[in-house]
Amino acid sequence: MSAILSDKMIKSIVVIFAKYEVEDRLFLFDKIPPTKLKNARISFASNMGSDEKVIALHDDTVMGSAKNGFVLTTKRLYHKESFGRVAFVEIDRIVDLKFRLGKNASEVDVVATSGIIKVKILLSKNHEAIFNALREAILLLQNPNAPTQTSNSTDSTHCNGCGAVGPWAVCEYCGSPMQ
């Protein structure tokens, strides 16, 4: 997987997060405050390589330090919850994401070829929106040639196979059923 993102890919990922109206605890690309990124790197993304471009940072701390949360890069998803251990998984090893909403938090099971990582989201206004945007962004990173949606059209469906979004019953890109 290439660490270089085209302008089209960056625009597509920004549109994904905008479509779900992800709130103020999530920062994208060059809008990530340097102090938050530094804290996240020290706290839970110290394995991040110099060839990885940071796409998104979700700050899941009360005081806004970003020492807990997740970081999505061009190569990996990093995560740490309060008093939890650090976890990361390579994007190309992710095979599924499953969402569960609890009373005070949500949990995303990141199913990878190497096992399952549980990503908790505690302090967000819309947990499901973050999950949906994260899922779409990961699918796009895994398959950058898949067609993407650049508007908020409600006539489109999702392909579980490649992440494409479009108005088809069967994905025109990979042939999988659309949902």
Features of this protein?
PH-domain like; 2 domains; three-stranded antiparallel beta sheet; 3 helices; 10 strands; 22% helix
Explain the layout of strands and helices:
Blueprint: H1 7-19, E1 26-28, H2 34-43, E2 54-59, E3 69-73, E4 76-80, E5 87-90, E6 94-101, E7 106-112, E8 115-121, H3 127-142, E9 157-158, E10 165-166
Count of extended strands: 10
| Tally of alpha and pi helices | 3
Determine the structural class based on helices, strands and strand pairing.
alpha+beta
Return the CATH topology of the largest domain. Answer: PH-domain like
Query: Overall mean pLDDT score?
Result: 81
Q: From the alpha-carbon coordinates, what is the Rg to the nearest angstrom?
A: 16 Å
What is the second-level CATH architecture of the largest domain?
Roll
User: What is the top-level CATH class of the largest domain?
Assistant: Mainly Beta
- Provide the spatial order of strands within the biggest beta sheet: 1-2-3-4-5
| Terminal-residue CA separation | 26 Å
Q: Biggest sheet, in brief?
A: 5 strands, antiparallel
Task: Describe the overall structure.
This protein is an alpha+beta fold and 179 residues long. It folds into two domains: 7-144, Pleckstrin-homology domain (PH domain)/Phosphotyrosine-binding domain (PTB) (PH-domain like, Roll), CATH 2.30.29.30; 148-179, no CATH class. The chain is 22% helix and 27% strand. It has helices at 7-19, 34-43, 127-142; strands at residues 26-28, 54-59, 69-73, 76-80, 87-90, 94-101, 106-112, 115-121, 157-158, 165-166. Residues 149-154 have low confidence and may be disordered.
